[in-house]
Design a protein that fits this description.
It contains 18 helices and six strands. It has helices spanning 36-40, 76-82, 85-94, 100-112, 118-123, 133-148, 157-183, 196-205, 216-229, 236-245, 251-262, 270-281, 287-295, 316-331, 338-350, 354-358, 366-375, 383-403; strands at 2-9, 16-22, 30-31, 60-63, 68-71, 74-75. It has a three-stranded antiparallel beta sheet. It has a three-stranded antiparallel beta sheet with strand order 4-5-6. Bound molecules: s-citryldethia Coenzyme A (SDX). S-citryldethia Coenzyme A is lined by residues 232, 235, 266-268, 270, 294, 302-310, 359, 361, 364-366.
Amino acid sequence: MTAKNFELKNPNTGLTTSLPVRSGTIGPDVLDISNINRDQGVFSFDPAFGVTASCESKITYIDGDAGILLYRGYPVEELAEKSSFMEVAYLLLYGELPTVRQAQEFSASISRHTMINESLLRFFHGFHHNAHPMAMVSAVVASMSAFYHDSTDIHDPRHREIFAHRIVAKLPTIAAAAHKHSVGQPFVYPRNELAYCSNMLSMFFAVPCEDYEVNPVAAKALDLLFILHADHEQNASTSTVRLAGSTGTNPYAAISAGVAALWGPAHGGANEAVLAMLEQIGTVDNIPKYLAMAKDKSSHFRLMGFGHRVYKNFDPRAKIIREICHEVLAKLGRNDNPLFELALHLEEIALKDEYFVSRKLYPNVDFYSGIIYSALGIPRSMFTVMFAIARTVGWVAHWLEMIADPGMRIGRPRQLYTGAARRDYVPAALRKTA
Ligand code: SDX
């Protein structure tokens, strides 16, 4: 829907271009500048895409000032309280909450796709035991394209749906295999009678020499964390999946690119960095010293788990995770968790500090999630893998939305060139030393 136009006048040529304004269902209007190079001979300039709407989407809506997060219009708080990760996965992938029958069929299909090709399991033996799990997961996900390359026609909706179910189903199996390889234990196969998160815990922690009973508190906590991490609009890793996918590449390769992007400490890798930071801070008495370092640009130290490109208010996911921390730690008999107490003090002190208040730096989704993962017995190096399992649903939802769009084109940003102007080749003998 076009609401009104902006008139852009070029002061050098006097030429005026009318830029259409488009309105969404909710949220800021966008200015369609796609013709300014044709009409005015200029590019827009927005490094890191801070104010650039890269696409139109119906999946997730964020209001950073109000701290609002909606999945297909449903508030994440309501889904966290009333839904399940499998139901949220269906919602994000298909656009609507499933009927009872649809939910049963979807979960059954996911269960039947949880095994991975035995050849894929052998890939793990090529990694050293101390390989970072995110390196293993991104590599094995990429190699899935070798197994499904000839049977994946991205222009066939049924092939796209099979890909979606396969990758959502297999991520926990691949993640668990990475963990088992790291600890030198045999792989544990998925069990079709177990629900998604229970299955994951079983593959992580079961051993062949004794029965394993899933702790329902742990399964429920994991399910809630996966709901909260499932999607987040056009974040760096989702934008990576969209850009890679826009070339028509194999979808498993595009998801692998998303895993690689998520790994960075400025993004999904922050949950692992938060625990390392809390252990480094150690005690409440040390908080002022580290807050001072966080404010000192020369220190290169940042308060991990704080700040967000979009949220300039509390990340609603962080609020929910902080609230369930107490409950989960108590139910797991881990409520004497010194790192959680330290995190609560750190948040309290930082949110009274002018540096953080003036920059609107609040705890984000990664600040408390590691506390729960730790309490579940998940190693710190696996925290971002947990994030990747959940975010695979969002990546796939965005890939499906983009590929199904008949107007899809390959993404190809331009640049502001500030390098050398044209110059001729100089023979080596005539080159002057710098
Ligand atoms: C995720 O995009 C998404 O949606 C991501 C995500 C998702 O679900 O996909 O929400 C998941 O990635 C959450 C973010 C996890 N990362 C961290 O917790 C790492 C620590 N945070 C930051 O590095 C930072 O806040 C970012 C990367 C999250 C956001 O960076 P921006 O938007 O580029 O902000 P900025 O670096 O320009 O910071 C603005 C100011 C700067 O100070 P000034 O130059 O104005 O003086 O705030 C400062 C920064 O130095 N600042 C921090 C800080 N974060 C920002 N100072 C200290 N500690 C921090 N954590």
